[in-house]
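Lab notebook page, bench 4
Experiment: in silico fold of construct C2
Operator: M.H.
Input chain length: 189 residues
Purpose: comparison with the prior construct
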Amino acid sequence: VPMLLLHGVAGDHKLWSGIGSGLARAGYRVLAPDLPGHGANPRDAARPEALANGLSERLADTFDGPLHIVAHSLGAVPAVALAEAGHACSLTLIAPAGLGLRIDGAFVRGLAAARSAGETAHLLQRMTEAPLPLSQNALSAIADTLSQGRLTALADALVGAAGQTVSLRAALSRLAGTLPVRIVAPHRD
């Protein structure tokens, strides 16, 4: 069964390069697209729901039948939408958005507004206790992409006055009755 790998906010398909390569070597067919507003995807996403735009069609053109969907962070939003549309035989969410009101709004809005490699490094460092494993060139490339401002409207739509605007709990409850649903949450999330 093929696998769909969906990145989180401010990421792109490259986030999955090591894992995708390993899965491909193990014999899996893997698709890791750039979500709207991210990477080379020409579509923008002003709202979290728009992150699923175009994915159903792409899956129908690429695969016959359901697949394993693995998503990180905000990638959970399109992952759940695809699963509800019948594209999933399993769903694995890593540190998913949409499970509670709390959200690190400063991080999300900071990434959307980042304009330099230094800002980007400080923000990304919040995701790990280990030293950030990115070169200065990689940080500069990420900052160049973020400086285009494509994520500003999405960040504003995701972070409301009281907290996170997305809730996936009801959908995950429904899906858990029809397919395997796994949630992997870091100890501090």
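Observations: Strands lie at 3-6, 30-31, 67-72, 88-94, 181-184. The helical segments are 17-25, 55-62, 76-84, 105-113, 117-125, 136-146, 152-158, 169-176.
Next step: discuss at group meeting.
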